[in-house]
Amino acid sequence: MLGHYLMFNRNCSQALETYKQAFGATVLEMQTYGDLPQNPTAPITQEDKDLVLHSRFEIDGSVIMAADSTHGWHSGGPILISVDTEDETWLQQAWDTLRQGGEVHLNLAPTFFAKLHGSLRDAYGINWMFTLS
After folding, report:
1. Where are the domains of the chain?
2. Phi and psi for 86 in degrees, rounded to 5?
3. Interacting residues of 25 by C-beta distance below 8 A, sequence separation 6+
4. Residue 39 backbone dihedrals phi, psi, to 5 degrees
5. Residue 103 near residue 120, CB atoms below 8 Å
6. Of the CATH numbers 3.20.20.105, 3.10.180.10, 3.30.750.24, 1.20.81.30, which one belongs to the domain with range 1-72?
7. Would you tell me which CATH number, out of the four given (3.50.50.60, 3.30.720.110, 2.60.120.280, 3.30.450.20), belongs to the domain 74-133?
């Protein structure tokens, strides 16, 4: 089985809140670094205790996993999360929410293969591609 695992630069909780707003996402599971058993050879710093160690959230029936990196993370890359729907209102809400503080790569507009299509990088460094079928 293949899945998606998003790594965040110490802002996974904020991203999950944004995805709730954008998509109506549901957080199914979340553990923080503070939930780890104490290990004297690898102590968790106070500033890292609230960071997300592992989470699972659902968008429109698809489950995506996510976590924070305690060492920083480079955003973007050649991977995009693809959102394909027939619900224009839902798509427009998600697009409008994620483009706030993000960078639009391709404006959401009609194309020869879709009613609307566009792509962006959100404020958390995650690339998204939107298609209205």
Report:
1. 1-72, 74-133
2. -105, 0
3. 16, 19, 57, 58, 59
4. -135, 110
5. yes
6. 3.10.180.10
7. 3.30.720.110
Residue type, 110: P
Buried b (16+ CB within 10 A) or exposed e, 12-35: bbebbebbeebbebebeebebbee
Q: What is the reported pTM?
A: 0.91
Which residue reads 């290990």 in tokens? 39
The pLDDT value given to residue 108: 97
Residues 4-56 pLDDT 10s: 999 999 999 999 999 999 999 999 999 999 999 989 998 999 999 999 999 99
Using CA atoms, how far residue 9 sits from 4, 17, 18, 95, 121, in Å, is 17, 15, 15, 22, 14
Sheet architecture: strand order including 5-8: 5-8, 62-68, 52-59, 26-32
